[in-house]
Each structure stands twice: as C-alpha cells, then as structure tokens.
Amino acid sequence: MKRSYVILMVIILVPSILMLLNKQGLSAKIEDNMAFSETLSTYGLFKGELFDLTPCNEAISIEIASSLFTDYAEKQRIILLPKDKKMKANGDGLPEFPDGTIIAKTFFYPKMIGENPNGKHILETRLLIKNKEKWNAATYKWDKNQQEAYLLTDGSTEPVAFTDKNGNRRTIAYKIPSRADCSSCHRQRNKILPIGPKLRNLNIDVVRDNQTINQLVYLKRKEKLHIGSTDEIDRISSYSEESEPIHNRARAYLDINCAHCHSPEGTAGITLLDLRYETPIQETGIWLKQGKISARMQVTGELHMPQKGTTMIHKEGVHLILDYIDNLNQMHGR
Predict the structure, then answer these.
(1) Using CA atoms, how far apart are residues 333 and 322, in angstroms rounded to an integer?
(2) 284-309 pLDDT, tens digit each
(3) pTM value?
(4) In this predicted model, what pLDDT tens digit does every residue of 152-201 receive, in sequence order?
(5) Residue/partner pairs of 37-40 with CB below 8 Å, 24 or more apart
(6) In this structure, are residues 211 and 282 in contact, taking their beta carbons and an 8 Å threshold?
(7) Which residues does 80 contact at the CB level (< 8 Å), separation at least 6?
(8) How many CB atoms sit inside 10 A of residue 131's CB?
C-alpha cells in the first residue's frame, strides 16, 4: 500500500516539477558559444613557470571577503580584462564585465612537510570566459609535474594528502567538477554567471605594493574598475572573522556556499530557500527550514550540502550555522 502511494505521488509530482523548472528556465542544457583550448597555458594568464602562478602583467589578482569552502583547498583568483577595457560597477552586486573577460580560479594545497615547503600541489583551474555577452565555463586539470593543465569535461578524483591551517594532517579524494557541475552551480535560469566577485565581496582591505588599500579603490586606480564613490558599496562580512556579528557571518557563509543554488533563479529555487546575503531574514526560509539546513550540512554523501565541490564536513561552517540557528531561536523565545 505504501509503495503504491509513493509511486502515485511521483506520477503526480514529477510533471509539475518539470513544468516549474521549464517555466524558470532551468530545464534546458546551457551550451557554450565558444570552443575552449585544450591547454591552460594557451590563454597566457601566467608569466614565467606556469606552476608559480604569477599573473601576467595585464591580469589582476583579487581577494574576496568570504570564500567558497572546497575541502580546505587554497585558491588564487585573477581577472584578465581585454586591453583598455574596465569592469563597470552596477550596485554592490556583480559588476558589468566586458566581452573577452577571463576569470580564473586555481585550487591548490600546500605540499606535505618534507616535500618542499615552498611548493604546492595544484589540482585545477576553473575558467569563466565571457564571449558575445555569454559566460562559458571550463575546468582544467593540472598534470602531476605541475607543468600544464588540460581541459576536463567529465570530472576527476585526485588523492590529496595535506596539513591544514590548524596543523591537522588530512587525506582526501578531491573531486574536480565536471563541466555539468560547473554549470549547475553558476546557473541562474538559462545563463551562467560568476559567483564570488560581487563588489560587496571585493570591498575589503588588501596589501598591494607593500601598502594596505581598499581593493575597490585599488582596482579603480589601476583602471580596471569604473566606479563612482566606493563609500556607497555595501561590505559583506568574512564568515571566519569571529569579531563580526554572528548574523553577518552566517549570512555571508550561506551566501557564498549556498545561495548560487538556493535563490529564486538558482537550480534549487523550488526549495523556497533564498539564502542570498541581501534577502531580508524573514524572506529567506531559514527560520522554517533550520532543521533541514543543519542536518544536510552534517552528513556526507548524496545528501550533503553544499552538494558540489566538497567531500567532507566543514566543521567550522557547521558550528557557525548551528550557533546562528540557536541565536535565532533565542531571539524568538524558543
């Protein structure tokens, strides 16, 4: 009887879900409108030895306040704009990028003790390239000699042993995402968009030329960003900064790790969770689905959240969100 009921519910619900996805523009596959090179070096993003990850003179390094958790991997982010072109501020969200922009994010781990303390184990570089007003996504897997990275379509798993920032030795099976994985996270309705370089996430102090400077001011001075007053740009919190209010830290964590899917135009929009930083708390669904959020963050496997790019539980992130939920309950007298 129970099995028949489940089958009946599937028959009833699946067509409705498919219709909803189609209405939201999430059912069709997003195709590239350009061909990617087979090798990363072709793009000229780095100068000197490729493994040194030294950006070319035309590229610019960026840092963000709150970063996606990816099994404790470290990341280098660079943006290469077409010659004499600038990003243009558009509120405190994503700037407008000119056609031909390349955004590159490289994932690596420090080598284990005794293996060359100045080296690193580079695993992958993810590219977003804007061509004819459309973003295209690709992943490049680095070879074992760290001399080149090659275009990857189906994803890959790489064994990695490293020591994290707390001195813990870890061994993991790192998952390099497939092209479909990249698209599912970066997808907003029927298009792909960058996630991290929103102006509020770039609005931090950085060290450039041995001096501390606001990053937006620096980008403006380098003629990489067209912007008026940087004082009008909101500033997102760093979720790892314990001196920040827990509400700001938790919302920043959910924004960078979850909101690309859990938003009205994301692939998980039908869950009715809107975890974007700018969404008022009463409209996020966090209060109603706090149990599911905490449960999915504390399991591994198919039910684990975030679903892509992680194979382990982010203990620091879990503690932050659990404390935040407790704080919400106390505020509401629960």
Answers:
(1) 16
(2) 999 889 989 988 999 887 777 777 77
(3) 0.87
(4) 988 899 999 888 777 888 889 999 988 888 877 888 888 989 999 999 99
(5) 37/151, 38/150, 38/151, 39/140, 39/148, 39/149, 39/150, 39/151, 40/125, 40/127, 40/140, 40/148, 40/149, 40/150
(6) no
(7) 43, 45, 56, 58, 59, 60, 101, 102, 104
(8) 14
pLDDT in tens, 127-164: 999 999 999 999 999 999 999 999 998 889 999 988 87
Question: Hey, what amino acid is at 162?
Answer: F
Average pLDDT rounded to a whole number, residues 312-322: 93
Domain-by-domain residue ranges, the chain? 23-236, 243-334
In the DSSP assignment, the letter for residue 39 is: B
Q: Give the residue from 91, 180, 79, 93 showing the smallest Cα distance to 130.
A: 79
